[in-house]
Amino acid sequence: MKHTHSFASTRRTFLKTVGGGAAAVALGGLSMPALAQDKSLTIIFNGNNENQVAALRKTIADFEAATGSTVTLNLMDHEAHKTAIRNYLVAGAPDVCFWFSGNRMKAFVDRGLFDDISDLVAEQNYAEVLGGTLGATMVGDKVYGLPLAGTLWGNFYLKNVFEEKGLVAPTTWEETLAYGEAAKSAGMAPLAFGSKELWPCAGFFDELNLRINGLENHIALMDGQMSYLDPMLQPVFDHWEELINADFFLENHTSYGWQEAGALLSQRKAGMMNLGNFVKYAVPEADIPHLTFIPFPKIADIPRFEDFSTDSIHIPSNAKNKALAREFLAMFYEPENLHAFLAPAGNVPPRNDMPPSDDPLVNAAVESLKTVAGTAQYYDRDTDPDMAQAGLNGFQEFMVHPDRREQILTRLDETRKRIFGVS
Amino acid sequence: MPNFWRQHRGWIAPTLFIMPAVVLFGVVIVASSVQSLWISLHDWDGMSPMHWVGLGNYQELFRDPQFFTSLKNNCIWLVVFMLAPPLGLGIALLVNQQIRGMRLVKSLFFIPLVLASVAVGVVFTWVYTPGFGLLALVFSAFGATAPALLSDENLVTFAVVFAALWPQVAFCMVLYLAGLNSLSDDLIGAGQVDGARGLNMLFHVVLPQLTQVTFIAIAITAIGALRSFDMVSVMTQGGPFGSSSVLAYQMYEQSIFSYRFGYGAAIASVLFAIMLVFIVWYLSRIMRADDRGA
To answer: What is the ipTM of this complex?
Structure first.
């Protein structure tokens, strides 16, 4: 089945057709009546946000009307999906599914489980509207998915609380140490930090490593080419230890999840939190207008690199109806449809031609990204999943027992050697 | 045909009746156990072709400090869980008294058994939350600061076991209550005639009649301790930094998050070997009891 339908020619005309409502239904129905039985599509979505699901359902309804196809949408719990995807990609793949970009995607690409959609990207000229964001879903020079919302990492805080307590958000290391003292004398933990789910520790490692050693070295470490015992990493842990010893982090942070820690911001028990903008889910409605962020403070004199983790939408290699899946992706990726889908989650949109968001945090992140020289995904998305699991545990242990640094790094390097097969 | 049936029904009928159970047990338990053993000899990520490594996974296992942490925690679980049968017996003796309102007390003790263990885990996590958990409030009422149990690598396993012990005690209590109801009145009457009272009565007349129940309670508690997974998963996810992990959780973590099914299967095999000790003990006791009965 080829792109016989009229919409493939130009995106804009198609959009108008859909906008035409009933007319479009008639048109879609008339143009391809005979093929109706072949046009079924299965989509698996892993989001828990009701409004996102509603937006997705609307796009699906429009798609069904326009193409005369039947679409089955299967909703899956976010955490359960992480394990289920490995089964369904091999046995019984849907036509479209959602996943994480970067190394998490590459793990499946290496095993030939995601379809190369470079043709769709070329046809729709996505490179133009996506720019560097497209790199998140590329392996080599081929594209294996379309990037969706991105989450920019930074230090989040409440403006009103900072004014109230006379605190200043730090931009350099010296200011950071001074801020810590000021926050502590105001009776607050300088950094709200919950490490029960482990991954926040890795985010903090990323920030320090990106600020001290830069993106290239960070990626070399993620790819297993750099040793965890490399002397370059020592300053990262020196800085980290400095903050740990200065009681920057919430006491007993291993008992708290990020949401419990995030709640301390508006309770005025903690000052800043290093996270993505989803920290807003832990902040009460009334305080959200005050929520803002500042990039992690500068340490070494190098350009600014950030964690910018991206989710993406993919076509599995074992999909039954790849051509129709491409048609769906093209429609789903229309600026308006994509906006409707992404807006409820409040993340940075991938396309540069999308309507501006009404969420100031998103707009601030978009602005901030313009001064970023390069982005990584996130520790557990950039490195091998097995390595990530060991790393997350190691970083948490370091945050509780900084004196075990040597031991932890030696262990991590043994794990690295095993996984990446280097010596 | 009727002749054939008459000649063979002696074995056909029982075979037919046993067949469903045998097939189900064979597929779900035996075949998958054998397959697990087979996988444990391979390097496998769950998707790609398996790669034979022989005993490589086991060799790595015995060099892995996390494995010994998990093993140690399983031992802690096993030892602390053994409190459940005596506690259950104590409570059962208590609520078995014919006192007004005892039914209510009995049902209160019964409640944790009705709760899903995940719910118990979540509730105890809240109790342990430093700062504003129930435990912290109790401590602060006495002017003390509660330890952050789930953050302390030395205490965390005990905190989790304690939470799991609650429903386990209730379970043992139910077993003993059932046992107490089937005590022989003749024997108790005879004991009374001979002047046995109080502890003498308990140790020499009542408890000997409860041996079978005790034996079931211990076996089930031991296996429950070894397969503990849900509470760890809900309360700590093995943390902080793996210090509360148990073999079952480590197996899950390695297979699902680290994509190492071979290694996970090796852990499962070791766990199976440990459980086998208890299972063999249990079965041999059962068979001996059967022989005596026959």
So the answer is: 0.78
Tell me how far apart the alpha carbons of residues B125 and B129 are, in angstroms, rounded to a whole number. 6
**Closest alpha carbon within chain A to B263:** A386
Which CATH number do you get for residue A222? 3.40.190.10
Q: What is the pLDDT of residues A146-158, one digit of tens each?
A: 998 888 889 999 9
B-chain residues near A263 (CB < 8 A): none
A386 lies within 8 A of chain B by CB: yes
- Domain assignment present for residue A1? The answer is no
User: What is the CATH architecture of B65-121+148-293?
Assistant: Orthogonal Bundle (1.10)
Question: Which of helix, strand or coil describes residue B284?
Answer: helix
CA dihedral (B198, B204, B206, B207) positive or negative: positive
Share of chain B above pLDDT 70, in %: 99
Positive or negative: CA dihedral B261, B267, B273, B279: negative
Measured CA to CA, the distance from residue A237 to residue A37 in angstroms comes to 60
- Compute the nearest-CA separation of B151 from chain A (Å): 5
Q: Which residue, A369, A328, A320, A317, is CA-closest to A348?
A: A369
Roughly what angle, to the nearest 10 degrees, separates helices B102-114 and B156-181? 130
pLDDT digits (tens, 9 = 90+) for B76-95: 999 999 999 999 999 998 88
What is the Cα–Cα distance from A379 to A383, expressed in whole angstroms?
A: 6
Same domain, A284 and A315: no
Q: Is B4 exposed, middle or buried (0-12, 13-18, 19+ CB in 10 A)?
A: exposed
